[in-house]
Amino acid sequence: MEITEKTTSGHEKVVFARDDASGYRGIIAIHSTVLGPAVGGTRFWNYATEEEALTDVLRLSRGMTYKTALPRLPLGGGKAVIIGDSKKLNRELIFRAHGRFVDSLGGRFITAEDVGTSPADMEIIRSQTNHVGGTLSNSGDPSPFTARGVFRAIQAAAKYRWGREDLSGLTVALQGCGNVGYHLAKSLSAAGASLIVSDVDPQRTARVVAEVSAQAVAADEIFDANADIFAPCALGGIINDETIPRLHAKLVVGAANNQLLEDRHGDVLKEKDVLYVPDYAANAGGVFNGCTELLGWSREQSLHKVDEIYDTVLRILELAHTGGVSTNHAADQIAEQHLDLR
Q: How many other C-beta atoms are found inside a 10 Å radius of the C-beta of residue 293?
């Protein structure tokens, strides 16, 4: 395996790996270990170029630093991406190579599942390194915890905006019906909300429609949905100059990472009187699930921490209001205060 390092401003370490025997190409970005070892999932995606993959891993790793700092976890932020078509490459060979790559960092980076990867893939990585979580034999699938946290964030935002956390009678436009989106849809439906859903995979959409009587729309039409709440649970960068004018929702709360294409889009949402809950505040439930392995928490401790997302969101929204800043800037202020403690 060939491993090379690239100096990148704002990151502690960015390394590239290539293994010609397996067809593996990967990047690991460590943004910060100020509070502890960097943690972050491994994303398996067919990026058009290596530059596109690098941009993604740098943004995602920075987001992980803020996600762990906001709740004062003794962990830092990092991320890994595997470049390639997951349907064509040999997954076992790929994840064995990735495990060796993770192991080469000596515990400075600990990975888990993300888009395109699963607890079963983490088991393969485990065969090559101990620096992995979210395996089938331990904390497993984090998506129910992530979905629970997003649900609590939606309740908090509704309480702040409308004076009630009861979601009955409200309509939610849910973008992305994967593992997290599916569990979130179930919770929202049980709480009395109506759902408009979309996904690039028609089978995922059909599953949610069948189980919660949701209305399905084409993937690009979800931005135009007549909904009270927009819940982005797919990929990042979807809140941008093109999509913001199309939104009818007064709340944006979802599980996707890096929802704002640029930080300034948080200001644009504020100007439009759309209440945005910063993604890394809402979607931290998966990290809390991983803390059963990383920090020895009990399941009850993890669930309690997930429910605390409600209070964290209210604190962010109040700080944004009193400070006259966008909610993403308010969340960053809190996280950066915690990073300065060490």
A: 17
Measured at the CA of 23, the angle between CA 20 and CA 25, to 5 degrees, comes to: 90
Nearest to 2 by CA among 27, 39, 29, 38: 27
* CATH number of the domain encompassing residue 43: 3.40.50.10860
Q: Confidence class of residue 221 from pLDDT cuts 50, 70 and 90? A: very high
50 and 161, same domain (yes or no)? no
Residue tagged active-site, from 6, 13, 67, 79: 79
pLDDT in tens, 54-75: 999 999 999 999 999 999 999 9
- Separation of alpha carbons 337 and 342, rounded Å: 10
Same domain, 159 and 85: no
The answer for residues whose C-beta is within 8 angstroms of residue 172's C-beta and 6 or more apart is 154, 188, 193, 194, 195, 196, 227, 228, 229, 230, 231
Task: Count how many residues are written for the chain.
Answer: 342
pLDDT digits (tens, 9 = 90+) for 242-257: 999 999 999 999 999 9
Q: Are residues 44 and 110 in the same domain?
A: yes
pTM for this one? Answer: 0.92
Domain hosting 158: range is 143-284+309-339
Specify whether 100 is located in the same domain as 180.
Answer: no
Same domain, 117 and 45: yes
Per-residue pLDDT tens over the stretch 34-56: 999 999 999 999 999 999 999 99
Q: Give the span between the Cα atoms of 285 and 48, in whole angstroms.
A: 30
Number of domains in the chain: 2
pLDDT of residue 297: 93
Residue 49, exposed/middle/buried by CB under 10 A (0-12, 13-18, 19+)? Answer: exposed
Residues 148 and 232 in one domain: yes
Report the share of the chain in percent with pLDDT over 70: 99
Question: What does the alpha-carbon distance between residue 139 and residue 126 come to, in Å, rounded to a whole number?
Answer: 13
298: tokens are: 């009990």
Instruction: Tell me: do 150 and 280 sit in the same domain.
Output: yes
* Angle between helical axes of 299-307 and 285-294 (0-180°, round to 10): 150
**301 lies in a domain?**
no
Residue 79 bears catalytic tag = yes
